[in-house]
Amino acid sequence: MSRETISQSISIVHPISLSHGKNAEVWDTTGKRYIDFVGGIGVLNLGHCHPRVVEAIREQATKLTHYAFNAAPHAPYIELMDRLTAFIPVDYPVSGMLTNSGAEAAENALKIVRGATGRTAVIAFDGAFHGRTLATLNLNGKVAPYKQKVGVLPGPVFHLPFPSRDNGVTCGEALKAMDRLFSVEIDVDDVACFIIEPVQGEGGFLTLDMEFAQALRRFCDEKNILLIADEIQSGFGRTGQRFAFSRLGIEPDLILLGKSIAGGVPLGAVVGRKTLLDNLPKGGLGGTYSGNPIACAAALATLGEMTDEHLKSWGTQQEEAIVSRYESWHSKKLSPYLGRLTGVGAMRGIELANADGSPASQQLTQLLALAREAGLLLMPSGKSRHIIRLLAPLTIEAAVLEEGLDILEGCLAKLA
After folding, report:
1. Does residue 1 carry a pLDDT above 60?
2. Measured distance CA(380)–CA(361) in Å, rounded
3. Is-contact 136 103, C-beta < 8 A?
4. Which of 17, 225, 293, 408 has the smallest number of CB atoms closer than 10 Å to its CB?
5. What is the 3-state secondary structure (H, E, C) of 256-308?
6. Which of 227, 253, 247, 288 minimizes the C-alpha distance to 96?
7. Contact assessment for residue 144 and residue 181, using Cβ atoms and an 8 Å cutoff
8. Nearest to 130 by CA among 230, 225, 272, 227
9. The pTM is what?
């Protein structure tokens, strides 16, 4: 199958062609089976072709395949927003809008905070990833490959260290860097918002320090700055509960959603304080495909499966399996390159590091190939591409999860 018509600027992790999938398993066009620990990069928390999602798509496709909501509202959009806003665990009145993707949610959030505050500056964090559109590129806490060769980006945007037990950056160090930023780089009164991931995805599944999260919330309240939580990858049960910000004891002003919101159908959202979402003029928000009826139907089916009981049991099962296996590997010194276990809940990363603690990027590249050959798909992350992202569907069968971890164990032992 030729790929000459596809842009060579798209990076491919696994040079295979997939044919079909079921829950946590996929097959390529040669018929080879793989256990999927990538999940469409965090999109498939309910797995491939979840029966309830497939049936919702099929039924909706016989009724209404598309209508632009801003031209004429349709029932699936209205029902989904009612269900989605009720699903957000905050104490204030919530409203929102649907988008085509997480990046588009971030773009609209920037418009919303500018309209609400009259300010333009944004503070983001090292290691962050918020999208590939022009404005979101500048939010990302990493240059290569996202910001290369594209010139001056929309701003102003400033970055701070991301404090986490997983990277060794302390709350005190991050707060000190923030003091310096407002002493040297920008007047605090010019800042519209902070944007932060409660658990970094692309950054290596680094969990935000709770003390810093609460200090940041207080600072934002004192300075009339808005706080945006990017839950695009960490949301919808990946950490064992609805959203990761709840673990930090804070409520953000705006929340970015995407990935697993609709069982694999493209959809995103920005939700938050109703007063913020309503502040732009009529027509200031919207989009042709945003909130497509089929995507909304898939999202409604997805939300129907994401009860608190399901999320807790799925997350606990996967977390216990991963942590237990990692501890076993660590205790028996399975590989000299086995580094730290990062993340929380079922959102886990395994670092590969050299004896001196430096990133073992070459070994991770080797591991990807070894695991693929053995029938396991993995995804890299981290600034140096040295942390394995474990994103198996939350619904993965226990036996398939153990089979995948067996393959990973064997491949780790072979690293040279």
Report:
1. no
2. 9
3. yes
4. 17
5. EECHHHHCCCCCEEEEEEHHHHCCCCCCCCCCCCCCCHHHHHHHHHHHHHCCH
6. 253
7. no
8. 230
9. 0.96
